[in-house]
Prior knowledge:
Chain A is about 0% helix and about 55% strand. In chain A, strands 2, 4, 5, 9, 10 and 11 form a six-stranded mixed β-sheet that branches. By secondary structure, chain A is mainly beta. Chain B contains no helices and eleven strands. Chain B has strands at about 5, 10-15, 20-25, 30-35, 45-50, 55, 65, 75-80, 85-95, 105, 110-114. Chain B is mainly β. The chains are: A mainly beta, B mainly beta. At the A-B interface, strand 4, strand 5 and strand 9 of A face strand 5 and strand 10 of B.
Amino acid sequence: xxxxxxxxxxxxxxxxxxxxxxxxxxxxxxxxxxxxxxxxxxxxxxxxxxxxxxxxxxxxxxxxxxxxxxxxxxxxxxxxxxxxxxxxxxxxxxxxxxxxxxxxxxxxxxxxx
Amino acid sequence: xxxxxxxxxxxxxxxxxxxxxxxxxxxxxxxxxxxxxxxxxxxxxxxxxxxxxxxxxxxxxxxxxxxxxxxxxxxxxxxxxxxxxxxxxxxxxxxxxxxxxxxxxxxxxxxxxx
Lengths: 113, 114
């Protein structure tokens, strides 16, 4: 059973600080990693994806991938109240083939003004 | 304006009735997916389709059926055989079904069965 694990939270971060969200996965062969943001009552919105070891930055968001340790993280700099949401980590085992995305249960992030 | 549409947003049904949820995309994506989300749980894959007239069962296909007669459309039928149908249903699509293409979600349909 391929698993993706996230701390369910809630994670509380002061406004303007860095929020750090972590995700571990069990399938060592996993190749593609995605972060989705989901506001309460809404559908998930893709905010970052990463395929290679290291960091990938997009605006205030940085995704970090460490395949040797089997974890992927999302950093949110200068956190804003609008960042308050549940963040879902998703992992795809192979870049090619019929395997499917596996989602974690999400981390609920609250930014405190 | 490209995107994925799902209708209706809210759906109420009596137990024992079949119900069909609509999903349409105009992104020219080959692959489409149906997920179910329950409170406190991750997304669980019901069915997916990589190409027209072809679809595969996901992890929780029992009690559900789908069709893919057109590239743009992937309706999901929740049958009376589904034991706990009340949930948030999400449709997604990606350019291809492989892992190097991102999945994008529609707005979802919240189904309540009483």
